[in-house]
Write a structure and sequence with these properties.
163 residues; four-stranded antiparallel β-sheet; 28% helix; Immunoglobulin-like; alpha+beta
Length: 163
């Protein structure tokens, strides 16, 4: 089982190894893979670096995420600067939220985040792209309750047999 999971994870490491590509901007997530439980909302944060020799305006974004997860990019518009000077890097800021519905199946959900902009405030070309993923996992409380229940029944069974 462990070997099978390792081989499934290898393509993901290749996919997320370089978290940003394309355009004059580099998007660096603090983590491009986050775990979330059903019903939870998580926030992706990161910084943006301008690798070009000119100012780049950040005029919008495009956020695509596998269903049934829901993404909200409001934080990008509230927290990102209007432009980034040549060679500059932003401080780390909250970029977008992802909400996992209560009935979402467990597993990995990939996504792509693009920054749109250019050399003027009216440009909407793709100037930076980064991949990310959300891993929907069982909530820790459920795991600990199952573990405690197994311990209780194990102890009860042993005590009952010895009397």
């Amino acid at each position: 089982m462990t070997i099978r999971m390792t081989f499934r994870a290898l393509p993901l490491f290749a996919l997320f190894g370089a978290s940003a590509f394309g355009g004059p901007l580099t998007i660096n997530f603090t983590s491009s893979l986050l775990n979330a439980a059903r019903g939870q909302t998580i926030t992706f944060s990161g910084s943006v670096a301008n690798t070009s020799g000119t100012t780049v305006f950040l005029n919008g974004d495009s956020l695509n995420l596998a269903a049934p997860l829901m993404a909200d990019d409001t934080k990008f518009f509230l927290n990102s600067p209007l432009s980034i000077g040549p060679g500059a890097t932003t401080p780390i800021f909250q970029i977008f939220d992802v909400t996992v519905p209560g009935g979402a199946p467990f597993g990995l959900y990939p996504g792509v985040f693009d920054i749109l902009g250019g050399s003027t405030p009216n440009d909407f070309a793709t100037v930076g792209t980064a991949t990310f993923a959300v891993n929907v996992v069982p909530e820790p409380a459920t795991f600990w309750m199952l573990l405690a229940g197994a311990g209780y029944w194990s102890r009860r069974f042993k005590v009952g047999r010895s009397s």
